[in-house]
Structure to design on (621 residues):
């Protein structure tokens, strides 16, 4: 597990806990089903999931920590380190690649000041992130918007038909 | 934003997309009711559950998630009165490259799905359903949640729906970025909070041992929306719109090198591939020729421009005869594409022109599959990675004389030897690109 100096679980608020309980109530047959929703809740709140998060969620659902950790390490969405405030996820797959997705991804890296050939190694690591913590850029697989390729998911926004010339102004709008 | 053509193409017939992309159409319930929403549910609640299942059988609706399995037959596996709880899980994972239709339903017309789902739940004696939405659609999850709340407040969900005595609760469940969760048994494991390794069939057919080991129906978002229209218009009319054994309309997503990529809704079998590319999508980009088409999502086998297929068709005298069918005359329905050795799949049509390098395209797909294999079965976990490494090396350094043979050997040793159909999905691109474009591999040998 990745060592952290502060424990996220020490700063939980009653509001957070009641939100967690609400999510658990969506699964009347088996609490374990609330694992993914609680991980999402945690990551949305703290930005990543530390050991205390894994342990807290496991305890809340009467599981052992490894039941939660094995999800964090399986799903590409979850991470064990802080990522940038704005996460730019550029689609890498065929329709986007045909429409220039690789070039668009390089342009995003350049526009935020990352090495254009940086790679995301997965396994809980954060995607490549700028030193000021403002931006992360990574390739992801098909975002189900292939008709308006190339596309990127920037935080919660889908940005479509991106031409390399648009990239700088897109980045500026997230500053 | 891609949107539908402002007026439907003459080949189109819009049921699912009737209100999508329409100026002023919002996803809220007021608007849905103003467009005749929840009338089909009212009608269905006055029918017997068995009548609804019979209607879905008679409609010839096939699943729109990829396997094209007849929906009524799937529902027929559930015994209404077996005393067990039953569940429906809606597959809104939409991750097959080339497919982008459920996105628009979930974002723009969530009540259409909720209505179709409520009818389906009533037919199959389900009181608890989950809508699994990939987490890359964060806004859709919020919109669908909101729609569920609205429907509940109006009595279309919850206890004693519209006074019928029927109860149904629906919850949204978000995925976490893994393509494999679109496979139905992986989806169920994911929903159970486990590492989403697909289950082996038999015995774990969802209709027998599904969510929480209870009979479960997994259907695609679009499939369940069609149920609403089957009830509204009647199964005969729905079946008649399509081709034999493949009823209704199908949403088609076209991407790649055409002038007008986008999503279209066309009666099943209502266009040939040539009409879809050259007429509906405005043809190839200026000065370009068609080279290759992947007709049903990235897992479907690639077809090469100029190919001619030998197919059995019924002649005017009612006799079966073998006929030569050129690629562009292939009818876009489940049986024709199967006869051509590929599949309609999720109807995600990816088009490539003569400027494209087929080894490069295959490598892009191989990287996708290597990234997405869940890792449970050795042939798939290792094989998908090897295929991707070999095609990457061919691009970087040129091919070795036996690369094509080795690639085929790897692919042939995956398909048919794995827990789930991802094994086929990841080997079909390699097998078909090698078979259809052997020259492109040969010319790279140094
Ligand atoms: C690797 C793999 C990925 C799949 N991804 C999806 C998907 O994203 N969405 C979907 O609806 N079906 C997907 N399917 C098909 C489902 O397993 C299942 O057949 C489908 O959801 C059933 O619904 P339908 O009968 O309405 O088509 C996938 C299958 C496999 C093998
Ligand atoms: S075939 Fe591949 S994706 Fe399917 S269970 Fe096996 S390893 Fe996982
Ligand atoms: S390939 Fe990029 S959205 Fe599908």
């Amino acid at each position: 597990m990745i060592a952290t100096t502060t424990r996220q679980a020490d700063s939980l608020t009653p509001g957070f806990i009641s939100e967690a309980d609400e999510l658990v109530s969506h699964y009347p047959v088996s609490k374990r089903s609330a694992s993914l929703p609680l991980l999402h809740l945690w990551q949305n709140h703290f930005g990543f999931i530390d050991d205390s998060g894994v342990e807290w969620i496991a305890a809340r659902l009467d599981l052992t920590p490894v039941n939660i950790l094995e999800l964090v390490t399986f799903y590409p969405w979850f991470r064990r380190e802080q990522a940038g405030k704005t996460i730019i996820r550029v689609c890498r797959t065929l329709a986007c690649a045909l429409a220039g997705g690789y070039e668009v991804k390089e342009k995003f890296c350049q526009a935020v000041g990352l090495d254009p050939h940086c790679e995301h190694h997965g396994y809980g690591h954060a995607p490549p992130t700028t030193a000021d913590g403002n931006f992360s850029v990574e390739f992801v697989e098909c975002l189900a918007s292939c008709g308006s390729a190339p596309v990127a998911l920037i935080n919660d926004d889908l940005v479509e038909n991106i031409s390399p010339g648009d990239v700088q102004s897109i980045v500026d709008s997230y500053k | 934003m891609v949107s539908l053509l402002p007026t439907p193409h003459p080949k189109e017939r819009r049921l699912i997309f009737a209100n999508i992309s329409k100026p002023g159409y919002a996803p809220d319930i007021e608007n849905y009711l103003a467009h005749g929403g929840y009338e089909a549910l009212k009608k269905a609640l006055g029918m017997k559950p068995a009548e609804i299942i019979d209607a879905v059988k008679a409609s010839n609706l096939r699943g729109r998630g990829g396997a094209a399995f007849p929906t009524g037959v799937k529902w027929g596996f559930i015994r209404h009165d077996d005393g067990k709880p039953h569940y429906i899980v809606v597959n809104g994972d939409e991750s097959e490259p080339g497919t982008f239709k459920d996105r628009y339903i979930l974002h723009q017309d969530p009540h259409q799905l909720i209505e179709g789902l409520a009818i389906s739940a009533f037919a199959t004696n389900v009181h608890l359903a989950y809508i699994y939405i990939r987490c890359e659609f964060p806004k859709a999850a919020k919109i669908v949640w909101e729609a569920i709340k609205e429907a509940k407040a109006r009595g279309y969900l919850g206890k004693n729906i519209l006074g019928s005595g029927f109860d149904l609760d629906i919850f949204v469940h978000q995925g976490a970025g893994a393509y494999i969760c679109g496979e139905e048994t992986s989806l169920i494991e994911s929903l159970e909070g486990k590492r989403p390794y697909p289950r082996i069939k038999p015995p774990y057919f969802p209709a027998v041992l599904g969510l929480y080991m209870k009979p479960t129906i997994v259907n695609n978002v679009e499939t369940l929306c069609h149920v609403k229209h089957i009830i509204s218009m009647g199964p005969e009319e729905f079946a008649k719109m399509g081709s034999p054994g493949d009823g209704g309309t199908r949403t088609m997503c076209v991407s790649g090198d055409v002038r007008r990529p986008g999503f279209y809704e066309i009666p099943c079998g209502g266009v040939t591939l040539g009409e879809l590319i050259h007429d509906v999508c405005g043809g190839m980009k200026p000065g370009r020729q068609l080279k290759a088409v992947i007709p049903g999502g990235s897992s479907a086998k690639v077809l090469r421009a100029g190919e001619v297929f030998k197919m059995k068709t019924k002649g005017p005298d009612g006799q079966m005869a073998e006929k030569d069918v050129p690629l562009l005359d292939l009818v876009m329905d489940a049986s024709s594409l199967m006869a051509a050795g590929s599949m309609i799949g999720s109807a995600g049509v990816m088009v490539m022109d003569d400027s494209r390098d087929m080894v490069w395209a295959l490598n892009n797909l191989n990287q996708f599959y290597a990234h997405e294999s869940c890792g449970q079965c050795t042939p798939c976990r290792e094989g998908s990675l090897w295929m991707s490494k070999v095609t990457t090396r061919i691009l970087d350094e040129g091919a070795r004389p036996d690369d094509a043979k080795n690639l085929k050997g790897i692919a042939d040793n995956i398909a048919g030897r794995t827990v789930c159909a991802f094994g086929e999905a990841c080997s079909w691109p390699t097998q078909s690109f090698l078979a259809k474009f052997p020259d492109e591999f040969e010319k790279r040998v140094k």
About this structure: The first strand of chain B starts at residue 87 and ends at 92.
